[in-house]
Amino acid sequence: MKKNMKTFIKIAVLAAAIGWGNDSFAQKKDTLKLDPDSKIKKAAKAVGNKTAETAVKGTSKVTDKTYKDKVGPGGQTIYIDKHAKYYYVNKKGGKVYVTAAQLKNKP
User: Fold this and answer.
1) Signal sequence span per UniProt (predicted)?
2) In Å, how far are 37, 44, 71, 95 from 41, measured between CA atoms?
3) pTM greater than 0.70
4) pLDDT, tens digit, 9 for 90 and up, residues 50-80
């Protein structure tokens, strides 16, 4: 019985400590509001998109096969995933799936 009581007291103390310490993690309102220049926003978005595109293309080259004889509708490199579906990577780093009819011969 003593062991159960000791365990109960430990749990109660732990719960109380978490409850009291929880206030320190509360979100505080930011008094300084920054409104970055539109050029900075545009540049940051472009860097993020290029990073995503490069990352997805790198993973695609490693994990999926590259279709050597065909290109996408805009001349993009075509990859074939493990389900035999064709796709290319767009400027924002997204995979755009295409049908075999949409593919063009490589020049």
Assistant:
1) 1-26
2) 6, 5, 33, 24
3) no
4) 999 999 999 999 999 999 999 999 999 999 9
What CA–CA distance (Å, rounded) separates 19 from 87?
Answer: 51
What is the reported pLDDT for 64?
92
Q: Exposed, middle or buried: residue 60 (CB in 10 Å: 0-12, 13-18, 19+)? A: buried
pLDDT lower than 50: segments of the chain: none
What's the full length of the chain, in residues?
107
Asked whether the beta carbons of 93 and 49 are under 8 A apart, the reply is yes
User: Which residues does 65 contact at the CB level (< 8 Å), separation at least 6?
Assistant: 79, 80
Q: Which residues contact 94 (CB under 8 A, 6 or more apart)?
A: 52, 56
Measured between alpha carbons, how far is 88 from 56 in angstroms, rounded to an integer? 10
Q: How far apart (Å, rounded) are the C-alpha atoms in residues 37 and 34?
A: 9
